[in-house]
Amino acid sequence: MSAASQSKTGGSGGSKGELLAASEAVSGNRIPSKVSKGFERIEREDTLLDFFVAGGWGMYPTLLAGLGLLATSFQYARRPEQRYVPLMTALGLFTMIAGGLGFVTGIMACLRGAAEMEAALNPTLLAFGVQEALHNIVLALLLSMGAALLASVGAWRLSREARGGPVTA
Description:
Blueprint: H1 3-9, H2 16-27, E1 34-37, E2 40-43, H3 48-54, H4 59-78, H5 84-116, H6 123-163
Antiparallel strand pairs: 1-2
Helix pairs in contact: 2-6, 4-5, 4-6, 5-6
């Protein structure tokens, strides 16, 4: 394959089929959303379900803990009572630990897949595997960020009550 045709297809020398099969073997999940085919580029939209599935099994405990965290933070925003704070703290920690564990196990699966196919190793494929493992961290951070926003509303309402002002929101 000439250098000109490689740059047009974005290829690294392997055929499309070989790269896609190797990508699935390394990551253990799905085909990347952007694939070069000849001179044209095929693109499809990634959905939230694709994002979730690509993250692997670690997404489930992360989502479960994060939804509990969001629910508790919502209650705290509505009624800022001290009894919600320990539960928010524990669920926030659980959400981040579950996301971190999903990331680590995803990296382990990616490296195990890469070691099994020594000859076909391609840095691009490792990048896809790491990117999919990071989905767990992204989910944990998004859920924690939403919960922190709700907890901030509760803290603001609590400070307004302490000053004796009206609480609106």
